[in-house]
Amino acid sequence: MLSHGAIKGGLFLCAGIVLHRLQKIGESHLHGCGRGMSFTALFILGAWGLAGTPAFGPLLGKSMISDAAADFHHGWLIYVLMFAEIITAAAVPRAAFRIFFGWGGPAPTDPSSQIEERPETHGRAAS
Fold it and tell me: Are 104 and 35 in contact (CB under 8 A)?
């Protein structure tokens, strides 16, 4: 649980940095805009860690849950966890590679992503 929280927190931090630097939201607006950002590798590592790859802590938690489910004759839970990992492994790295490397064509536009983020401050305060 701690490793999952740390990985997800790191991904939210990276997403906040992207939002702050590029002043855009939505995968269709960010397509290829993140090229050259120095923390790209951290975003991709976090994406793979969240998907439960062997080098990261969430794999241990998933295996403990799977073992406990098998002990209580709830084998179907293993398939639910596997489905969730597949969806995560498809979505998060896909977004990372589209944003940071410009892979694939631009995503279809979503009306909710048409809003440009407004700055929270308009300049320096008078001192």
Answer: no
- Rounded to the nearest integer, the mean pLDDT of the chain is 76
112 in any annotated domain: no
For the stretch 36-48, what's the b/e string if a residue is b when 16 or more beta carbons lie within 10 angstroms of its beta carbon? ebebbeebbbbbb
User: Of 14, 1, 99, 95, nearest to 57 (Cα)?
Assistant: 1
d(CA 18, CA 37): 9
pTM for the whole structure: 0.62
Instruction: Record the tokens describing residue 103, joined without a space.
Output: 């892979």
| Domain membership of residue 17 as a residue range | 2-105
In a domain, 110, yes or no: no
